[in-house]
Amino acid sequence: MEETSSLAKWRKGGIRTMPFIFSNEICEKLAVVGFAANMISYLTQQLHMPLTKAANTLTNFGGTASLTPLLGAFIADSFAGRFWTITVASIIYQIGMTSLTVSAILPQLRPPPCKGNEVCEEADAGQLAILYVSLLLTAIGSGGIRPCVVAFGADQFDETDPKQKTSTWKFFNWYYFCMGVSILVAVTVIVYIQDNIGWGWGFGIPTIAMFLSIITFIVGYPLYRNLDPAGSPFTRLVQVVVAAFRKRKLQKVSDPALLYQNEELDASISATGKLLHSKQFTFLDKAAIVTEEDNVKASSTPNLWRLSTVHRVEELKSLIRMGPIWAAGILLITAYAQQNTFSLQQARTMDRHIVRSFQIPPGSMSVFTIVSMLTTISIYDRVLVPIARRFTGLDRGISFLQRMGIGFIISLLATLVAGFVEIKRKHVASVHGLMDNPHSTIPITVCWLIPQYSLHGIAEAFMSIGHLEFFYDQAPESMRSTATALFWTSISAGNYISTLLVTVVHKFSAGPGGSNWLPDKNINRGKLEYFYWLITVLQALNLVYYLLCAKLYTFKPIQLRRKEDESQGGVELAGGV
């Protein structure tokens, strides 16, 4: 009976679940990006928002949608599990998308069109309320999808099986590749429909795609390897802090072997392997010191608010160690966020014709980001990794910390280049007397923007995938949804920093006669290049900070339980060096 159960468990998961998970991700990203890629155009042209207000609305929405994954991760890791969290969150997302689609179809839910050169009427409070409620529902839905889909896909590969262990890092590459393909379709086909056919169809098609993604994901349920939730990870973290505080006056133990361990108690949160004692943050070790008051008995569970196991203490240490690396990713997102705001407005003023009868929609400019990202991922996986493996001996070629560092450098170059391109764009506008006419097309090809978009795509292929690998690999196994949520919270923080930066620069760069680095109506009269270079300087400082953090980072020590010998385990520093 036990052998049959083990065989059934072995048959679940693996590579055959990938079509269902990737199909879900492709449809979900088609929907998400189909909304987001051209939303700045919808807000400014259909709802008649000022540019800075529209830009901040989008970055605030992006920030909120990337913050809610903390709640989704808590629900998934604590009691619901990843499958049901993804399913329910997808339904909530579907409701929000449907609401936004309806508002784009019904004329009474939008302000009237502009007439000639008259001042356009901005959306009223009721129309904005529908927009904000729709965006809020999609943000809540994202909170359940984003932290769980990646972790759920990686869960399909058993780390205790040497044959499947090396498949995990390949999964992250191909996950991002499939996501990129769907984004590519969104920023070309969907954006073209929005600009040339109508916003009803432009929003409606992604809404239908989201519905299909829910059906596809549910159909694969019998094949999935579902890991049981291990209880609230946040409660365990707080218990360690409380226990360490209660015992703060105790002397540290001379031998870590004297600290409390209980494999039976930790069994549900250490199925793959147990965390070993590390030498950092030793003040937290006091939570695992056994005293007479703890009244520890072999057959009973101790009061976890007074006594924690080494494994639970190390869970908290792992998250603390990850914090500085997490923070380093924020500014890259701040730089990346400008593609859907100011870079898009640059594109709108330029000659976007590829041939005489066709011009690229501004929202489709990010196609160059996606193509460069997909190309980089393919070259990285098929060419760079085999070459690097010969020198490093690592299955993944280079460590995720090295991969992230390369991404930071390329992102810095992207914003530096963007500043010089903006100078060129305004010079051409000045030569042709178009500085005061923001609605006229400047006779400079939009291809000048390709380098900055492409560099951002290359940077994302290195940094974002490396960041995601880092969180999944270095997080305690019972907190992987939570750790993946940290990836999205860095995106959230990056968007909020972008909002703050835009607001501060807009306020303090204001001068006489309405001059401003970031003007509301006419970017030709602004100093957008200064804004790009400000971000470049911040990224340079951030790179120095990251290199210091990476050099000092200590990988989590874990003793893995291997399938070929359940009674023995090998000590392995997760993630390598």
Automatic annotation (TrEMBL):
* Entry keyword Transmembrane helix: yes
Question: What is the first-listed, main subcellular location in coarse terms?
Answer: membrane
InterPro entries xref list: MFS_trans_sf (IPR036259), POT_fam (IPR000109)
Q: How does it sit in the membrane?
A: Multi-pass membrane protein
Highest taxon of the source?
Eukaryota
Q: Give the molecular function GO annotations.
A: transmembrane transporter activity
Which family does the entry's similarity section mention?
Belongs to the major facilitator superfamily. Proton-dependent oligopeptide transporter (POT/PTR) (TC 2.A.17) family.
Q: What is this protein called?
A: Protein NRT1/ PTR FAMILY 3.1
User: What organism, scientifically named, is this protein from?
Assistant: Nelumbo nucifera (Sacred lotus)
